[in-house]
Amino acid sequence: MIKISRFIFIFLFFISLTSRCRAADKVAAIGALEAAEFKLGDLQGNTVSLSSYKGNSAVVLIFWTTWCPYCRVALNSLKRDVASLKDMGVELLAINVGESKLKVSNFASSHSLNFKVLLDEDTYVAYSYELLGVPTYFVINKAGRIVFSGNRFAKEGLKELLAK
């Protein structure tokens, strides 16, 4: 009897964690969270700030690393989507987390990345976005609010998210 009640407790505990995560996703989905401002360098040495897009275009952030196999798949998919994202008024910013400019530059060249790659070498921006892993996506509307965050990006629902 004790084993069964312990099993039920553990099961309910994990269910409550899952529902809390879903509730957090819903908060983000309705645009309740202001996106944290950042200024990062790109591979060409320019400084890019998130606030420069506010009021002008929506932004998709993807946090990634060169060693992550899931990130490679995600970046290859985004290479195909970058033109249609621009047509929708969405800027794509790929933020590398914790790696050197030389390493990221070599990776970007060898993989023909056709979008802005930013360097978060000290991981400060990843920390401010409470990143738990890579790849992680954030969709930020023109008002500067986070309307989506997650480990998978569904371009199909993007128009509805940006309308919020």
Automatic annotation (TrEMBL):
Keywords, in A-Z order: Signal
Annotated signal sequence range: 1-23
InterPro entries linked to this entry: AhpC/TSA, GLR_AS, Thioredoxin-like_sf, Thioredoxin_domain, Thioredoxin_ResA/DsbE_sf
Pfam families, per the entry: AhpC-TSA (PF00578)
Thioredoxin domain sequence ranges: 29-164
Keyword Signal annotated: yes
Keyword Signal on entry: yes
Coiled-coil regions, chain positions: none
GO MF annotations in UniProt: antioxidant activity; oxidoreductase activity
Descriptive protein name: Thiol-disulfide oxidoreductase
Organism: Candidatus Sherwoodlollariibacterium unditelluris
